[in-house]
Amino acid sequence: MTDQIDLFNASGIEVTIPPKDFNPADIPTSAQVPIPPGTYKSLDPLAAHCKSCQRCDLSQTRTNVVVSRGSRTAPIMIIGEGPGQQEDEQGLPFVGRSGQLLEKILASVRIDSEKDVYICNIVKCRPPGNRNPLAAEINACRPYILEQIRLVNPKIILLTGATSVKGIMPHEKRGITKIRGQWIEWEGRQCMPILHPAYLLRNPSREKGKPKWLMWQDIQTVRAKLDEILAE
Ligand code: SF4
After folding, report:
1. Confidence (pLDDT) at 10
2. Is 66 near ligand 1, meaning CB less than 6 Å away?
């Protein structure tokens, strides 16, 4: 498993480029073999591969693999932690109470969740009992999210919650409350950690400085950045 991460992230290690006639369907879905950048020509074979994936033990307890929803050409990608019960049942990310709140947050600054946004998760199968994904599960699933980012090519990435930050930026040691609302450049993209909507549901106060108020500040900053990008 460590070998696989090193193949992706370690500088100085030559990354294998798949040959032109390479078929991703030939990659065993039951083994943790490297899936280098460029493996998938589009999101369809990636989704097909995810749906038969058994790279980690979450495959044993899932109902559906949850790959994505929204626009494949969206300027904003929202990355959550992992599917909950409703997402597992429906096979779509952010469709439960957290998802409904996320829709309202986006709509408050006129961001269309179908047109402007591509939504996915760090792990694509539900951790039992909604526990946090384990490091081994995040690592096993990381090649897929990196390929989703490459193929959608978003200008802005929103990382919802601490696990999402850990999944994309494993070396980031600061806590989510320290870095939320800040732009962090990652691989030439503007990333912003934001609080997870589930956290807002547990902390409903709108008072200044409380999670909902902080989210309102952050989503306005995102809207301003989107306007800036669209005007370029
Ligand atoms: S969580 Fe990711 S790596 Fe694990 S089985 Fe599901 S798709 Fe595969």
Report:
1. 37
2. no
